[in-house]
Protein backbone atom coordinates (compact mmCIF):
# COMPACT_ATOMS: atom_id res chain seq x y z
CA UNK A 1 0.00 0.00 0.00
CA UNK A 2 1.30 3.42 -0.98
CA UNK A 3 2.48 5.80 1.78
CA UNK A 4 2.97 3.13 4.43
CA UNK A 5 6.47 2.79 5.87
CA UNK A 6 6.40 -0.94 6.56
CA UNK A 7 10.01 -0.88 7.77
CA UNK A 8 8.83 0.96 10.94
CA UNK A 9 6.27 -1.67 11.81
CA UNK A 10 6.63 -4.02 14.73
CA UNK A 11 5.15 -7.49 15.08
CA UNK A 12 1.60 -6.44 15.77
CA UNK A 13 -1.95 -6.44 14.48
CA UNK A 14 -2.48 -4.00 11.61
CA UNK A 15 -5.84 -4.04 9.82
CA UNK A 16 -6.08 -5.74 6.45
CA UNK A 17 -8.99 -6.23 4.01
CA UNK A 18 -10.31 -9.73 4.52
CA UNK A 19 -10.28 -13.02 6.38
CA UNK A 20 -10.98 -16.43 4.87
CA UNK A 21 -12.83 -19.13 6.76
CA UNK A 22 -14.58 -22.46 6.61
CA UNK A 23 -16.42 -24.47 9.25
CA UNK A 24 -16.67 -28.17 9.90
CA UNK A 25 -20.21 -28.93 11.02
CA UNK A 26 -21.22 -32.54 11.70
CA UNK A 27 -18.08 -33.70 9.92
CA UNK A 28 -18.66 -31.70 6.71
CA UNK A 29 -16.55 -28.68 5.72
CA UNK A 30 -18.35 -25.65 4.26
CA UNK A 31 -17.15 -23.84 1.12
CA UNK A 32 -14.40 -21.36 2.09
CA UNK A 33 -15.67 -17.78 2.37
CA UNK A 34 -13.75 -14.55 2.00
CA UNK A 35 -15.18 -11.87 4.26
CA UNK A 36 -14.44 -8.25 5.17
CA UNK A 37 -16.29 -8.75 8.44
CA UNK A 38 -13.64 -9.37 11.09
CA UNK A 39 -16.22 -9.84 13.86
CA UNK A 40 -17.29 -13.45 14.14
CA UNK A 41 -20.74 -14.44 15.20
CA UNK A 42 -20.21 -17.24 17.72
CA UNK A 43 -22.45 -19.03 20.17
CA UNK A 44 -21.50 -17.94 23.68
CA UNK A 45 -21.45 -21.59 24.82
CA UNK A 46 -18.87 -22.44 22.11
CA UNK A 47 -16.17 -24.69 23.59
CA UNK A 48 -13.42 -22.20 22.76
CA UNK A 49 -14.73 -19.87 25.50
CA UNK A 50 -14.27 -22.39 28.30
CA UNK A 51 -12.27 -25.58 27.63
CA UNK A 52 -9.95 -23.97 25.06
CA UNK A 53 -10.19 -26.38 22.10
CA UNK A 54 -8.04 -23.98 20.14
CA UNK A 55 -4.82 -24.13 18.16
CA UNK A 56 -3.15 -21.81 15.71
CA UNK A 57 -0.25 -21.32 13.32
CA UNK A 58 1.99 -18.51 12.09
CA UNK A 59 3.69 -18.17 8.71
CA UNK A 60 4.65 -15.40 6.34
CA UNK A 61 4.12 -14.31 2.74
CA UNK A 62 7.17 -12.49 1.41
CA UNK A 63 7.74 -10.38 -1.66
CA UNK A 64 11.12 -11.48 -2.96
CA UNK A 65 13.81 -9.41 -4.67
CA UNK A 66 12.36 -10.76 -7.95
CA UNK A 67 8.94 -9.21 -7.15
CA UNK A 68 7.39 -12.67 -6.73
CA UNK A 69 5.31 -13.47 -3.64
CA UNK A 70 5.97 -16.72 -1.82
CA UNK A 71 5.00 -18.66 1.29
CA UNK A 72 7.74 -20.47 3.23
CA UNK A 73 7.04 -24.17 3.88
CA UNK A 74 3.25 -23.84 4.39
CA UNK A 75 2.91 -27.65 4.30
CA UNK A 76 4.92 -27.81 7.55
CA UNK A 77 2.50 -25.42 9.27
CA UNK A 78 -0.41 -27.46 7.92
CA UNK A 79 1.03 -30.68 9.34
CA UNK A 80 1.70 -29.04 12.71
CA UNK A 81 -1.88 -27.73 12.89
CA UNK A 82 -3.19 -31.21 12.09
CA UNK A 83 -1.09 -32.67 14.90
CA UNK A 84 -2.35 -29.95 17.32
CA UNK A 85 -5.97 -30.68 16.35
CA UNK A 86 -5.40 -34.43 16.81
CA UNK A 87 -4.10 -33.77 20.31
CA UNK A 88 -7.30 -31.83 21.03
CA UNK A 89 -9.39 -34.61 19.42
CA UNK A 90 -11.11 -32.20 17.07
CA UNK A 91 -11.55 -31.97 13.29
CA UNK A 92 -8.63 -30.54 11.31
CA UNK A 93 -8.32 -29.20 7.76
CA UNK A 94 -6.26 -31.30 5.35
CA UNK A 95 -2.85 -30.04 4.23
CA UNK A 96 -4.44 -29.01 0.91
CA UNK A 97 -7.27 -27.08 2.62
CA UNK A 98 -4.83 -25.36 4.95
CA UNK A 99 -2.65 -24.19 2.07
CA UNK A 100 -5.68 -23.24 -0.07
CA UNK A 101 -7.05 -20.93 2.64
CA UNK A 102 -3.62 -19.37 3.20
CA UNK A 103 -3.32 -18.67 -0.53
CA UNK A 104 -6.83 -17.19 -0.67
CA UNK A 105 -6.04 -15.00 2.35
CA UNK A 106 -2.88 -13.62 0.72
CA UNK A 107 -4.76 -12.99 -2.51
CA UNK A 108 -7.59 -11.21 -0.68
CA UNK A 109 -5.03 -8.96 1.06
CA UNK A 110 -2.62 -8.55 -1.86
CA UNK A 111 -2.50 -4.75 -1.48
CA UNK A 112 -1.08 -5.25 2.03
CA UNK A 113 1.95 -7.32 1.02
CA UNK A 114 4.89 -5.12 2.06
CA UNK A 115 7.43 -4.30 -0.68
CA UNK A 116 10.65 -6.31 -0.66
CA UNK A 117 12.79 -3.27 0.24
CA UNK A 118 10.90 -2.72 3.52
CA UNK A 119 12.09 -6.04 4.99
CA UNK A 120 8.52 -6.52 6.27
CA UNK A 121 6.10 -9.31 5.33
CA UNK A 122 2.46 -10.34 5.40
CA UNK A 123 2.07 -12.54 8.48
CA UNK A 124 -0.67 -15.16 8.29
CA UNK A 125 -2.41 -16.38 11.42
CA UNK A 126 -4.45 -19.55 10.80
CA UNK A 127 -6.70 -20.40 13.77
CA UNK A 128 -8.78 -23.51 14.46
CA UNK A 129 -11.25 -23.59 17.34
CA UNK A 130 -14.34 -25.34 18.68
CA UNK A 131 -17.66 -23.61 17.95
CA UNK A 132 -20.41 -26.04 18.97
CA UNK A 133 -22.32 -25.03 22.11
CA UNK A 134 -21.34 -27.27 25.02
CA UNK A 135 -21.34 -27.37 28.77
CA UNK A 136 -19.84 -30.72 29.73
CA UNK A 137 -16.10 -31.29 29.30
CA UNK A 138 -15.74 -32.63 25.79
CA UNK A 139 -13.62 -32.04 22.72
CA UNK A 140 -15.18 -29.88 20.01
CA UNK A 141 -17.26 -31.63 17.33
CA UNK A 142 -17.66 -28.56 15.16
CA UNK A 143 -14.83 -26.16 14.42
CA UNK A 144 -14.07 -22.99 12.55
CA UNK A 145 -10.85 -22.71 10.57
CA UNK A 146 -9.98 -19.12 9.68
CA UNK A 147 -6.89 -17.48 8.19
CA UNK A 148 -6.26 -13.81 8.83
CA UNK A 149 -3.34 -11.54 7.95
CA UNK A 150 -1.36 -8.59 9.30
CA UNK A 151 1.50 -6.78 7.54
CA UNK A 152 4.30 -6.80 10.11
CA UNK A 153 7.88 -5.69 10.65
CA UNK A 154 10.31 -7.29 13.07
CA UNK A 155 9.06 -8.77 16.31
CA UNK A 156 10.34 -6.12 18.76
CA UNK A 157 11.18 -3.32 16.40
CA UNK A 158 14.83 -3.96 17.35
CA UNK A 159 17.52 -3.85 14.66
CA UNK A 160 17.75 -7.17 12.88
CA UNK A 161 20.24 -9.58 14.51
CA UNK A 162 20.94 -7.19 17.43
CA UNK A 163 21.74 -9.40 20.43
CA UNK A 164 19.34 -9.36 23.38
CA UNK A 165 19.23 -10.66 26.94
CA UNK A 166 17.27 -13.55 28.44
CA UNK A 167 16.29 -14.80 31.87
CA UNK A 168 15.70 -18.38 32.99
CA UNK A 169 12.25 -19.11 34.35
CA UNK A 170 12.68 -21.20 37.50
CA UNK A 171 9.41 -20.48 39.26
CA UNK A 172 7.11 -20.76 36.21
CA UNK A 173 6.95 -23.65 33.73
CA UNK A 174 5.70 -23.55 30.14
CA UNK A 175 4.78 -27.15 29.43
CA UNK A 176 4.44 -30.27 31.56
CA UNK A 177 6.73 -33.24 30.85
CA UNK A 178 3.88 -35.31 29.43
CA UNK A 179 1.80 -32.28 28.47
CA UNK A 180 0.90 -30.28 25.37
CA UNK A 181 4.12 -28.28 24.81
CA UNK A 182 4.82 -29.99 21.48
CA UNK A 183 1.57 -28.64 20.01
CA UNK A 184 0.66 -25.07 19.13
CA UNK A 185 -2.30 -24.68 21.45
CA UNK A 186 -3.64 -21.35 22.66
CA UNK A 187 -3.70 -22.87 26.15
CA UNK A 188 0.11 -23.20 26.18
CA UNK A 189 0.47 -19.48 25.68
CA UNK A 190 -2.16 -18.63 28.32
CA UNK A 191 -0.10 -20.77 30.70
CA UNK A 192 3.12 -18.82 30.06
CA UNK A 193 1.78 -15.27 29.67
CA UNK A 194 2.24 -14.19 33.28
CA UNK A 195 5.91 -15.20 33.38
CA UNK A 196 6.45 -13.73 29.90
CA UNK A 197 5.05 -10.38 31.09
CA UNK A 198 7.26 -10.42 34.20
CA UNK A 199 10.39 -11.04 32.13
CA UNK A 200 9.54 -8.26 29.68
CA UNK A 201 8.82 -5.82 32.51
CA UNK A 202 12.32 -6.59 33.81
CA UNK A 203 13.70 -5.62 30.41
CA UNK A 204 14.65 -9.10 29.13
CA UNK A 205 14.05 -9.82 25.45
CA UNK A 206 13.47 -13.55 26.01
CA UNK A 207 12.32 -15.92 28.73
CA UNK A 208 14.00 -19.34 28.78
CA UNK A 209 11.96 -22.28 30.07
CA UNK A 210 13.48 -25.45 31.57
CA UNK A 211 12.17 -29.01 31.66
CA UNK A 212 9.33 -29.20 34.17
CA UNK A 213 10.36 -32.45 35.89
CA UNK A 214 13.92 -31.59 36.96
CA UNK A 215 14.60 -27.97 36.03
CA UNK A 216 18.06 -29.06 34.94
CA UNK A 217 17.90 -28.79 31.17
CA UNK A 218 16.87 -26.21 28.60
CA UNK A 219 13.58 -26.52 26.74
CA UNK A 220 12.80 -23.38 24.76
CA UNK A 221 12.04 -19.67 24.91
CA UNK A 222 8.49 -18.38 25.43
CA UNK A 223 7.74 -18.04 21.74
CA UNK A 224 10.77 -19.50 19.98
CA UNK A 225 13.18 -22.46 20.03
CA UNK A 226 16.72 -22.50 21.47
CA UNK A 227 19.88 -23.35 19.59
CA UNK A 228 23.56 -22.95 20.36
CA UNK A 229 26.81 -23.22 18.42
CA UNK A 230 29.93 -24.85 19.82
CA UNK A 231 32.91 -26.52 18.10
CA UNK A 232 31.27 -26.27 14.66
CA UNK A 233 28.18 -28.04 16.04
CA UNK A 234 24.56 -26.86 15.98
CA UNK A 235 22.99 -27.95 19.28
CA UNK A 236 19.26 -27.82 20.02
CA UNK A 237 17.11 -29.49 22.69
CA UNK A 238 15.36 -32.76 21.94
CA UNK A 239 12.17 -32.90 24.00
CA UNK A 240 8.54 -33.82 23.27
CA UNK A 241 7.40 -30.77 25.23
CA UNK A 242 9.21 -28.33 22.90
CA UNK A 243 7.23 -26.95 19.97
CA UNK A 244 8.74 -28.38 16.74
CA UNK A 245 9.79 -25.08 15.16
CA UNK A 246 9.83 -24.93 11.36
CA UNK A 247 12.59 -22.32 11.52
CA UNK A 248 14.71 -24.61 13.70
CA UNK A 249 14.11 -27.52 11.31
CA UNK A 250 15.18 -25.34 8.36
CA UNK A 251 18.24 -24.05 10.22
CA UNK A 252 19.31 -27.63 10.97
CA UNK A 253 19.16 -28.47 7.27
CA UNK A 254 21.15 -25.38 6.36
CA UNK A 255 23.66 -26.08 9.17
CA UNK A 256 24.33 -29.51 7.67
CA UNK A 257 24.69 -27.90 4.23
CA UNK A 258 27.42 -25.69 5.74
CA UNK A 259 29.22 -28.73 7.17
CA UNK A 260 28.18 -28.27 10.80
CA UNK A 261 27.41 -31.28 12.94
CA UNK A 262 23.82 -31.19 14.21
CA UNK A 263 22.99 -32.46 17.69
CA UNK A 264 19.45 -32.77 19.09
CA UNK A 265 19.88 -33.73 22.71
CA UNK A 266 19.38 -32.77 26.32
CA UNK A 267 21.17 -29.50 27.07
CA UNK A 268 22.04 -28.88 30.70
CA UNK A 269 21.74 -25.30 31.93
CA UNK A 270 25.41 -25.14 32.95
CA UNK A 271 26.44 -25.85 29.34
CA UNK A 272 25.50 -22.24 28.59
CA UNK A 273 28.92 -21.29 30.00
CA UNK A 274 30.70 -23.09 27.15
CA UNK A 275 28.58 -22.07 24.15
CA UNK A 276 30.11 -19.79 21.51
CA UNK A 277 26.77 -18.57 20.15
CA UNK A 278 23.22 -18.81 21.49
CA UNK A 279 20.04 -17.83 19.66
CA UNK A 280 16.31 -18.00 19.80
CA UNK A 281 14.67 -18.91 16.49
CA UNK A 282 11.18 -18.69 15.02
CA UNK A 283 9.13 -17.38 12.12
CA UNK A 284 8.82 -13.84 13.48
CA UNK A 285 12.49 -12.82 13.11
CA UNK A 286 14.23 -16.10 12.17
CA UNK A 287 17.09 -15.60 14.70
CA UNK A 288 17.61 -13.43 17.78
CA UNK A 289 21.15 -13.69 19.15
CA UNK A 290 21.29 -13.93 22.95
CA UNK A 291 24.36 -12.41 24.58
CA UNK A 292 23.50 -12.74 28.27
CA UNK A 293 21.29 -15.09 30.30
CA UNK A 294 20.45 -14.48 33.97
CA UNK A 295 19.59 -17.42 36.20
CA UNK A 296 17.25 -16.24 38.97
CA UNK A 297 15.52 -18.31 41.67
CA UNK A 298 12.33 -16.30 41.02
CA UNK A 299 11.38 -13.81 38.35
CA UNK A 300 9.90 -11.53 41.01
CA UNK A 301 12.98 -11.45 43.27
CA UNK A 302 16.17 -9.43 42.83
CA UNK A 303 18.63 -12.29 43.38
CA UNK A 304 20.62 -13.43 40.35
CA UNK A 305 22.39 -16.76 41.00
CA UNK A 306 24.51 -16.71 37.86
CA UNK A 307 24.87 -14.73 34.64
CA UNK A 308 26.03 -16.48 31.46
CA UNK A 309 27.74 -14.17 28.95
CA UNK A 310 27.81 -15.44 25.38
CA UNK A 311 29.64 -13.84 22.46
CA UNK A 312 29.76 -10.18 21.50
CA UNK A 313 26.90 -8.08 22.98
CA UNK A 314 26.91 -5.88 19.86
CA UNK A 315 27.14 -8.52 17.12
CA UNK A 316 25.46 -11.73 16.05
CA UNK A 317 27.90 -14.67 16.07
CA UNK A 318 29.48 -15.44 12.66
CA UNK A 319 27.98 -18.93 12.21
CA UNK A 320 24.49 -17.84 13.27
CA UNK A 321 24.70 -14.90 10.86
CA UNK A 322 25.65 -17.24 8.02
CA UNK A 323 22.69 -19.52 8.83
CA UNK A 324 20.37 -16.50 9.05
CA UNK A 325 21.53 -15.13 5.71
CA UNK A 326 20.91 -18.47 4.00
CA UNK A 327 17.35 -18.84 5.37
CA UNK A 328 16.38 -15.21 4.71
CA UNK A 329 18.10 -15.41 1.32
CA UNK A 330 15.82 -18.32 0.36
CA UNK A 331 12.72 -16.58 1.77
CA UNK A 332 13.50 -13.38 -0.13
CA UNK A 333 14.64 -14.95 -3.38
CA UNK A 334 18.28 -13.86 -2.98
CA UNK A 335 19.60 -17.42 -2.77
CA UNK A 336 18.77 -20.54 -4.72
CA UNK A 337 15.88 -22.41 -3.08
CA UNK A 338 17.64 -25.77 -3.33
CA UNK A 339 15.11 -27.42 -1.02
CA UNK A 340 11.97 -26.15 -2.80
CA UNK A 341 10.77 -24.57 0.43
CA UNK A 342 9.04 -21.61 -1.24
CA UNK A 343 5.58 -21.80 -2.74
CA UNK A 344 4.97 -19.06 -5.30
CA UNK A 345 1.60 -17.27 -5.42
CA UNK A 346 -0.22 -15.43 -8.20
CA UNK A 347 -2.30 -12.38 -7.59
CA UNK A 348 -5.33 -14.28 -8.99
C1 LIG B 1 6.68 -21.75 21.83
C2 LIG B 1 7.22 -21.55 20.46
N1 LIG B 1 8.33 -22.25 20.11
C3 LIG B 1 8.88 -22.13 18.89
C4 LIG B 1 8.33 -21.29 17.93
C5 LIG B 1 8.97 -21.18 16.59
O1 LIG B 1 8.27 -21.95 15.64
P1 LIG B 1 8.35 -21.59 14.11
O2 LIG B 1 9.78 -21.60 13.72
O3 LIG B 1 7.58 -22.66 13.42
O4 LIG B 1 7.74 -20.24 13.96
C6 LIG B 1 7.18 -20.55 18.24
C7 LIG B 1 6.56 -19.68 17.25
O5 LIG B 1 5.76 -20.15 16.50
C8 LIG B 1 6.61 -20.69 19.52
O6 LIG B 1 5.52 -19.99 19.88
Please give a structural write-up.
It is a single chain. The protein is of the alpha+beta class. It has 2 domains: 147 residues, Aminotransferase class 4, branched-chain amino acid transferase, N-terminal domain (D-amino Acid Aminotransferase, Chain A, domain 1, 2-Layer Sandwich), CATH 3.30.470.10; 168 residues, D-amino Acid Aminotransferase, subunit A, domain 2 (D-amino Acid Aminotransferase, Chain A, domain 2). The protein is 20% helix and 28% strand. It contains 5 helices and 18 strands. Strands 1, 2, 3, 4, 5, 6, 7, 8 and 18 form a 9-stranded antiparallel beta sheet that branches. Strands 9, 10, 11, 12, 13, 14, 15, 16 and 17 form a 9-stranded mixed beta sheet that branches. Strand 12 and strand 13 form a beta hairpin. The longest helix has 16 residues. The site of pyridoxal-5'-phosphate has 12 residues, from helix 4. The site of pyridoxal-5'-phosphate (PLP) has 12 residues, from helix 4.
